[in-house]
Specification:
Mean pLDDT of chain C: 88
Largest sheet of chain C: 2 strands, antiparallel
Number of helices of chain C: 12
CATH topology of chain A: MetI-like fold
Number of domains of chain A: 1
CATH superfamily of chain C: MetI-like
Oligomer: heterotrimer
Number of helices of chain A: 13
Chains: A mainly alpha (about 280), B alpha+beta (about 350), C mainly alpha (about 280)
Strand content of chain C: under 5%
Number of strands of chain A: 0
Number of domains of chain C: 1
Low-confidence stretches of chain C: none
Number of strands of chain C: 2
Shape of chain A: globular
Largest sheet of chain A: none
């Protein structure tokens, strides 16, 4: 294989490596492609080849009341969760990056734990908390669940942004007469704009898709993933394919947007990996 | 004649035997950006050649083409009877000392130095003795078991050198290896490198932007500017007989005199001296140390001037003298011990060396 | 550099929230695990180790846990096998296309878990796309039953979901390897293959450990894929917990299992961190 362009020219590339890469991408995307294809299939979710292609299922979807109710619920939850996560996640990042206090190591691990911990544990422990406190399960409890679990996302994103921030700028501000609060609002926060927006976007998307924690905390009203889940237990129709396709498209757009935002400041290797490293506590 | 050919005609012919390395009409561009234009250069066996140039001159690119990390857009590179540029870097009998040393962080000093030998599957006993010898040569035997992160920059540099030399390459490439060192260490390493090269007898191609370094260490200097060779000559020749205005100014200080030659006499402002060249405009380089103060030499060209500025440089002083018509000459003297005002300057006509223009290139 | 008031303002709110909504729930779960449930379906706060005793004695819990670990192990291995060469290709061979390809890898990562698990369900069923395709091209006459409602389906789906997770830290580690080390290796006579094993791979081990840890921990605790695709033979430990909080109504026992899982995960993270530090050279 003629090697593809690279700064370090590795002469004698490997055919197998390219083949493997293509195969993995196929593995990752074919199921989704099939899903999308069959959302247009008249005869159901299975069977090959798909015969009559139609938009009927999308029409059914748009007329489906409960689904749209759940979409509305999900949107409300996502916004609220976003607010909570950012409200507590941004200061948490600042605290971790700047301050020294007893129990900091424990705090750090605790904040980042929900990222790597299976959702069931976080969900169940919150369930027990609400049970003991006598709180009824509702959208509110889901908001609290998402908000708590996703603080870690806000923290890692903002933390990375803080590390990129040139301390000298803040010192210059203090030198020129601004106090700590003014410096914070005039210098620090504007520099964190991109990471915060990126975090918001990511939190919103993750909340919309979230199912593991929500599973244990729902009351009478469903979020979108849980509504779909309920349908699945009853029987599957291409309508579910249709709503899945739409979810996929929205997620795709959101993630690409988020990625573009992050690329403004860093190389691609860092994008997303603080979140992964966070589970190890090694980024922070 | 091409520029390269003209640049080489003024060089002493050191390449009388068959050259070790022959760079023939090599050019390189990255997209629209032309980095090297038509470079032809021969490197002799056992020679210490420096490729000297500013950043952007293409010197690192040229080195990387020889090492094999870039392929030339045009031209060929030969080593002996075979074409070097057709081979991947791991088959060339060429080794490189990287600017950032590039020591493997997960290997000890010893393992780093042994790397090339291990890869070549040499017997362990041979590896052990050659590595020991290499470490002794660079005076790093005591640090054999250390990791690179634990030793200083200067020490890392020596290890990088040992790692390259232990493989007994036919040619060693050094990419600004001393640029990260502080001034004193740098001077010390210059001497050590030079004597090391004499000792092992391998050809060194040394890349730097520091003209003083180039003069101190090299057998020959290849001055590179914007992708073309300005001049290839020994340090003394480049200094004493610079081929172009750029060469004259880049290496050491000089006064550039824009003169008009008519009837064997060059005229520049108030200065006039015999110059056996054809009529027309000509550019002359006159080194500050070749201008004397109040010396009364025979056959010298004299001019009076007023001292505008004196700069103390330790062993010498650099004096700026205004000599009528706004012409300013820079003069180097050993310390005069006092402020000067009106002075009489003199120089011998042969010291005014004619140089070619160095046009602005895009 | 920052005043105490500022520090307090910045540290206290998250500290309080995290204590209330993270630390206390875990502690509460710990407490629950010592209680028991009475015949009349109420929680009795009688402190004892009965639940843990049950875990140790009753076979089904042990077996399920081991099966879960075996499934998680397979998912981890496959994720690494798929993810590592992918990361290597992107980092060293992809050149200008690197960025685009990277986005293509992380997109599935953030697209709904449910969507992807559901997709596999529709593909693997006896009337699903794969089976009907195979029959259509006459490779098989009857649907392959093992494709769905089996551990196979769970492993396949979880591999699909967690391969990008495994990819990310490996890619990051590979990207952080200075390219001049690769050049130096070539310069010293090593072919690309030798360079990979002697230089690149050793320096990427922390990333591989991180990737393996994520894949293992996340798939171990997964309950959705088994529920959708696992069938009776594909039940994992989390499903047991879910049923204990649902139909089987024994919160304390469920809490005990959950807490054990929590401990297991935290220990794995700790171990993994130690390993990464050991293999980190920068």
């Amino acid at each position: 294989m003629e090697l593809l362009v690279s700064e370090t020219k590795l002469v004698s590339g490997s055919r197998w490596l390219l083949f493997h890469t293509v195969a993995v991408f196929a593995f990752l995307y074919l199921p989704i492609a099939v899903l999308i294809l069959y959302s247009f299939n008249k005869d159901g979710v299975g069977g090959f080849p798909p015969h009559h292609l139609t938009l009927d299922w999308y029409r059914t979807l748009f007329a489906d009341g409960p689904i749209w109710d759940s979409v509305l619920n999900s949107l409300q939850v996502a916004f609220a969760a976003m607010v909570i996560s950012l409200t507590f996640g941004v200061p948490a990042a600042l605290a971790l990056e700047r301050a020294q206090f007893p129990g900091k190591a424990l705090f750090r691990r605790l904040v980042l734990l929900p990222l790597i911990l299976p959702g069931i544990i976080t969900g169940l422990s919150l369930l027990m908390l609400f049970n003991v406190m006598g709180t009824k399960l509702s959208l509110m409890t889901i908001v609290l669940g998402h908000g708590t679990a996703l603080i870690s996302v806000a923290t890692t994103e903002v933390f990375a942004g803080l590390q990129k921030l040139d301390r000298a700028q803040e010192e210059a501000s203090l030198d020129l007469g601004a106090n700590y609060w003014q410096t914070f609002w005039r210098i620090t926060v504007p520099n964190l704009k991109l990471p915060i927006i990126g975090a918001a976007l990511l939190i919103f998307t993750l909340s919309m898709d979230e199912i593991a924690v929500s599973f244990f905390l729902i009351g009478r009203e469903n979020t979108l993933p849980l509504e779909i889940w309920g349908r699945l237990r009853r029987g599957i129709t291409p309508e579910i394919n249709a709503v899945s396709t739409i979810i996929f498209v929205f997620s795709l757009v959101a993630i690409v947007l988020w990625y573009r935002l992050r690329m403004h400041g860093e190389g691609s290797a860092d994008v997303g990996t603080e979140i992964i490293n966070a589970g190890e506590g090694s980024a922070i | 004649m091409t520029t390269s050919e003209m640049a080489m005609t003024s060089a002493a012919d050191t390449v009388s035997r068959a050259p070790l390395l022959s760079i023939r009409n090599v050019a390189k561009h990255f997209g629209k950006n032309v980095v090297l234009r038509d470079i032809s250069l021969d490197v002799a066996e056992g020679e210490f050649l420096t490729i000297l140039g500013e950043s952007g001159s293409g010197k690192t690119t040229l080195l990387r083409i020889i090492a094999g990390f870039e392929t030339a857009s045009a031209g060929e590179v030969w080593m002996g009877e075979e074409r070097l540029d057709r081979q991947p870097p791991y088959r060339r009998r060429v080794n490189t000392v990287f600017q950032s040393y590039a020591l493997f962080p997960h290997f000890t000093v010893e393992q780093n130095v042994a790397y090339g030998l291990r890869v070549a599957k040499r017997p362990e006993a041979e590896i052990a003795s050659r590595v020991k010898e290499a470490l002794e040569k660079v005076k790093m035997s005591a640090h054999a078991k250390s990791k690179p992160s634990k030793i200083s920059g200067g020490q890392q540099q020596r290890i990088a050198l040992a790692r390259a030399l232990v493989n007994r390459p036919r040619l060693l490439l050094l990419d600004e290896p001393l640029s990260a060192l502080d001034a004193n260490l740098r001077r010390q390493m210059q001497v050590e490198l030079k004597s090391l090269q004499r000792e092992v007898g391998i050809s060194f191609i040394f890349v730097t932007h520091d003209q003083e370094e180039a003069m101190v260490m090299s057998d020959r200097i290849a001055l590179l500017r914007l992708g073309e060779l300005e001049q290839v000559a020994t340090p003394r020749e480049i200094y004493g007989r610079p081929a172009t205005a750029y060469a004259a100014q880049f290496i050491g200080h000089t006064n550039l005199l824009k003169a008009e030659v008519r009837g064997g006499v060059a005229r520049c402002g108030v200065l006039m001296w015999p110059a056996a060249f054809s009529d027309g405009p000509a550019l002359f380089s006159l080194r500050p140390e070749n201008i004397r103060l109040n010396a009364a030499m025979a056959g010298a060209v004299r001019v009076r001037g007023k001292v505008r500025h004196q700069a103390f440089h330790g062993a010498t002083e650099l004096i700026r003298v205004e000599c009528g018509d706004g012409m300013v000459l820079v003069v180097r003297t050993s310390c005069s011990g006092g402020a000067l005002d009106e002075v009489e300057l003199e120089f011998s006509p042969p010291d005014a060396v004619m140089v070619r223009e160095s046009p602005e290139r895009i | 550099m920052f005043s105490r008031a500022y520090k307090a303002a910045v540290t206290l709110p998250p500290l309080v929230w995290v204590t209330v909504f993270l630390l206390m729930p875990y502690l509460l779960m710990f407490c629950y695990s010592f209680w028991s449930v009475s015949a009349s379906q109420t929680i009795e706060h009688s402190w004892n180790l009965a639940n843990y005793g049950q875990l140790l004695r009753v076979d089904v819990y042990w077996q399920t846990l081991l099966r879960s670990m075996w499934i998680a192990a397979r998912v981890t291995i496959f994720s690494l096998v798929l993810g590592y060469p992918l990361a290597y290709f992107l980092s060293f061979y992809a050149g200008k296309k690197k960025d685009l390809l990277y986005q293509l890898v992380i997109i599935p990562l953030w697209v709904s878990y449910l969507v992807r698990a559901y997709a596999w369900k529709t593909i693997l069923g006896s009337d699903g796309v794969l089976n009907t395709l195979l029959q259509y091209v006459h490779v098989t006459k009857h649907p392959l039953e093992f494709l769905l409602y089996s551990p196979f389906a769970v492993v396949l789906t979880l591999t699909h979901i967690y391969t990008p997770f495994a990819f990310l830290p490996i890619y990051a580690a590979l990207e952080h390897i200075p390219r001049n080390l690769v050049e130096a290796s070539h310069d010293l006579g090593a072919t690309p293959g030798q360079t990979f094993w002697r230089v690149i791979f050793p320096l990427s081990i922390p990333g591989a450990v991180a990737g393996a840890t994520f894949a293992f921990v996340l798939s171990l605790g997964d309950f959705l894929a088994p529920l959708l695709l696992g069938g009776p033979s594909g039940i994992m430990i989390s499903n047991v917990v879910v049923s204990l909080f649902g139909a089987a109504y024994n919160w304390p026992l469920g809490a005990a299992i959950s807490f054990c899982m929590l401990l297991l995960v935290v220990s794995l993270l700790f171990l993994s961190e130690r390993m990464e530090k050991k293999w980190s050279f920068s």
